[in-house]
Amino acid sequence: MEHSFQHTPTPQELADLKARELDSICVNESELQHPWWYNFKYAAWGILFGIVFVKAEIISWFRIQEMFRFESFHMYGVIGTAVFVGLISVQLIQRLNLKTVHGENIHIPKKEFNKGNIYGGLIFGLGWAITGACPGPLFAQVGAGFSVVIITFLSAVAGTYVYGRFRDKLPH
Amino acid sequence: MLETLKQPWPWYVAGALIGLTVPYLLLVGNKTFGISSSLRHLCAACIPGDIKFFTYDWKKEIWNLFFVGGIAVGAFIAAHFLSNPDPIVLAGSTQDYLATKGITDTTQLLPSEIFSWDQLFSVRGFIFIVLGGFMVGFGTRWAGGCTSGHAIMGLSSLQWPSLVATVMFMIGGIVMTWFILPQLLTL
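^ inputs. structure came back:
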């Protein structure tokens, strides 16, 4: 199994990583133990991200309607530019063999295809057009003061929970 | 300066900043960009039960919860200190179409006719607020990611399963918008 440990992992560590890797998203196994407040560097970027979400109206139900009705370029421009900038960045990181600010090798987990990419993707797409929000904008809508979206958010947590509960019975 | 910031930001500024999240997270801490997994970490932290999918050391992913917490704080800041006083400028055709469905309030980012506490207990409100959210949470986890994890991080790192997922997101959204929403909006 491909993994990002930079030492020989114990069986317990491997089992835990495998559980987190089940859907191959957001897995990291940094060797470095930092004080908890190091996490504020992620919160700081999150704050910038939240401001962008609101100011470019990405969290707007109306903008998502425009996108799916093909009546505005705005959201296509946002996502297209983001992918372009991300792509160039990843290429640079890989070709220049850049390391993290703490000197670790950078590891991007490979995503394995499974049928959930199709079925789950379709269900998410249907839900995206209804709520006008993917998970990120849900946090931003609540933060921006749309208090009823707390219900949408809790419902999304419930959806995630139900998926986890019945995961073994779903095709993958 | 502040007046400029209060105007809606153009797509290329927003897109560039969102794209830069990918190298920022990689360079600062070897993290891959993804937001929907925060919902999973919340389940793992609060209601893991004995479900294998939720029994892992979620504290190793706590950076993700700091990130989404930051998103909410940033949105609060933007809404209170950088708010644009004018109604949202929509494509005329979208505005006309929505008006035929009774959606005319464009003063806020979300239509008050649908997303309000009064509407929550109507059939339409339940579908838009509760069922829609459930589909977002269930669908993203089954798909293994959302717009950030698949469309941005996945495509940026040239992973073809993410392209499949992104295409399915778009198909789902288009089917809903063109064939199902016209009925749901008039409920």
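The first helix of chain B runs from residue 2 to 6. Residues 116 and 125 of chain B are 8 Å apart (CA to CA).
thumbs up if we can close this ticket
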